[in-house]
Structure to design on (119 residues):
């Protein structure tokens, strides 16, 4: 059974940094795109970033490009999202997802971790 468990969320002041992690079990990162999405109550889940199975290609939403960095450690089956220069509009629940095909198809996601950025 595939499980994705996010951690690292919390409360931070604007301009601060957080590092999110996602540990996977029941699956390996090989051959899968891994992504981060976020969601604010009452709004649809929003794409944040994704990384290809070999770590060579990455994709970022325009709102986070230059501030967030996605990475993966295949040996540890861990996905990370380094978030710098955080803004209040980054406040959301962040989810880790597994993508079996391409950048925009995802089949498993975790329970999410709350990120709150105060102004």
């Amino acid at each position: 059974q595939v499980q994705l468990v996010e951690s690292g969320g919390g409360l931070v002041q604007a301009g601060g940094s957080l590092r999110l992690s996602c540990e996977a079990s029941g699956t390996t990162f090989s051959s899968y795109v891994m992504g981060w999405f976020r969601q604010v109550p009452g709004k649809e889940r929003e794409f944040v970033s994704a990384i290809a199975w070999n770590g060579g290609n990455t994709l970022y939403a325009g709102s986070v490009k230059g501030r967030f960095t996605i990475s993966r450690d295949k040996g540890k089956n861990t996905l990370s999202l380094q978030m710098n220069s955080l803004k209040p509009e980054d406040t959301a629940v962040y989810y880790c997802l597994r993508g079996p095909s391409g950048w925009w198809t995802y089949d498993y996601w975790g329970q999410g971790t709350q990120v709150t950025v105060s102004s």
User: Anything to note?
Assistant: The two ends are 40 Å apart (CA to CA). The mean pLDDT is 93.
